[in-house]
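queue> pop job 88
queue> type: inverse folding (structure -> sequence)
queue> payload:
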């Protein structure tokens, strides 16, 4: 990960995480609004529902049997952990040891505070680390979880290779990430207007680039994952952005924005980029599941 991009991501989340938590809570990811995206939900509940639905989807084998019976998940890694929302949730749900990594020292410190408040300090560990060069031994985790962090990775191949490396044989890899629509040979290449739209999203949210879900699947196959499964949940999560937009411009949010710096203000003013991206079919919310073969 280049030092410039590393710094951009770190600074973006250092500046915005406190405001996000104050206004929207501990979960820094989409919500789930039913398969067609038409269920009315309180936003934080929708975010919890996304975790649960994602787990249920990821733990079901192609034969329809639950992988939960085979997977103890005693050691969990949360890549791009934010302030620990998913890490703490998974540690408590599975009574597991969980580790969260982030590029933001502000996020890591806040996650440690939240773990102490939840009396889960003995079960979780948070650290600042680069997901492309993770400071863990091979075969360390039963579950590697990446909920909306893949879009920040400047090398998608290296990212999946690292996830594979630290996963135990028989372990489960679950990733949900921002994608763009599929392209050749199943659909036309991106238009100049679509590329311009994506470039604005990259600039505002400190992203190097995104790829399509079929491209992620091809990388996962080449990396060596087994039992690979993908899904497009764009409809299910798209309402999230309009809900955030509606909540972003109350007095509390505006006062917080004014004190959080220009990068956070610009990101808030640009929320419509994501909403419009879903509406035009350009932005996709892609899921990928893979198992590391037993040796």
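queue> result:
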């Amino acid at each position: 990960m280049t030092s410039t991009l590393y710094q951009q991501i770190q600074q973006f989340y250092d500046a915005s995480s406190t405001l996000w938590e104050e206004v929207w809570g501990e979960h820094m990811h989409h919500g789930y609004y039913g398969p067609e995206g038409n269920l009315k939900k309180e936003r934080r509940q929708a975010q919890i529902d996304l975790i649960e639905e994602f787990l249920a989807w990821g733990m079901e084998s192609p034969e329809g049997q639950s992988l939960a019976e085979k997977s103890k998940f005693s050691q969990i890694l949360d890549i791009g952990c934010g302030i620990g929302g998913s890490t703490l949730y998974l540690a408590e749900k599975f009574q597991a040891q969980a580790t969260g990594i982030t590029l933001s020292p502000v996020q890591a410190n806040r996650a440690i505070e939240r773990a102490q408040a939840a009396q889960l300090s003995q079960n979780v560990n948070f650290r600042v680390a680069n997901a492309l060069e993770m400071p863990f031994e091979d075969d360390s985790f039963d579950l590697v979880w990446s909920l909306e962090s893949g879009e920040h990775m400047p090398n998608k191949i290296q990212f999946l290779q690292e996830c594979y490396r630290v996963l135990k044989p028989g372990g489960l890899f679950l990733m949900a990430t921002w994608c763009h629509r599929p392209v050749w040979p199943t659909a036309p290449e991106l238009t100049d207007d679509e590329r311009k739209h994506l470039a604005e999203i990259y600039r505002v949210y400190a992203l190097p680039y995104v790829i399509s879900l079929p491209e992620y699947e091809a990388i996962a196959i080449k990396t060596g994952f087994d039992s690979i499964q993908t899904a497009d949940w764009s409809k299910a999560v798209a309402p999230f952005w309009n809900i955030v937009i509606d909540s972003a411009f109350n007095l509390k949010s505006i006062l917080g924005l004014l004190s959080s710096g220009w990068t956070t203000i610009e990101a808030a003013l640009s929320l419509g980029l994501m909403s419009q991206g879903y509406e035009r079919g350009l932005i996709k919310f892609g899921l990928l599941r893979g198992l590391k073969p037993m040796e």
